[in-house]
Each structure stands twice: as C-alpha cells, then as structure tokens.
Amino acid sequence: LSAVRYTGVSGTPFRQEQHRRAVPPGQEETVTMTVTYAEYGPHVGDQDALKLTAAGVVEETGQVVAKELRVRLHAPELTLTLLAPAVVGQETPVQVVFQNPLPETLSGATLRMEGAGISCPKPFQM
User: Which residue, 88, 90, 98, is CA-closest to 124?
Assistant: First the structure.
C-alpha cells in the first residue's frame, strides 16, 4: 500500500503484508486488510490517492498474477443554507456546515465566500 501523488508518482510503500494460502479447485480465498487514518494519514496530501497492489504466485506453475487498485480519497462536502430570503443590496445570513471526518481536531481553517455581487470577500477564521 502506498500513496499516489496527483501527478501519478507513487510514494514509498508504507504497508506490506504477505499471506500464504492453499486454494482448493473451484474455490475462492479472501484476505481482508483494514487501514486506519493514523496509518495512511501521514503519507497522503490533499489530492492524493492510495494504491493497493496485490500479487500472487502459483507455486505449482510459477505463474504470477497481479492487480492494482487506486482508491481516491474524498473530501467531505460543505453544506450551505440561506437563513433568510436573499434581497439585492441587503446582507443575507448563510449557514455553513462542515463535519470533520478525521479522528483528530482540525485547526487553522479559513472560510472564504465568493460569488456574484460580493464585492469584498471577508475571510472567516475558524
């Protein structure tokens, strides 16, 4: 498992597992891997993805099988709600909701609203 930059360049793998299985004819074998934010968080940036590479070797024939999966990490959405009717030339209260999905506190964020008719966007420190 490694991080993949938005440019497509892979980082150094930060987790590797090796499993040995005997699979009877016509049967499937499942291997599960759980990756926590604490494990992958230090390796990914804002626009990165995770790349999982699985490879197997059939001992009897030496045949190699491999598969790669890229997992795009999605940022949570902002929810915007008008709290009163919007009237030209008047201030309009807006509610912005952001839910932190991470197991750690976020700090130092700035909210900045832009749009038609907003002449001087004012950053709001959070």
Answer: 98
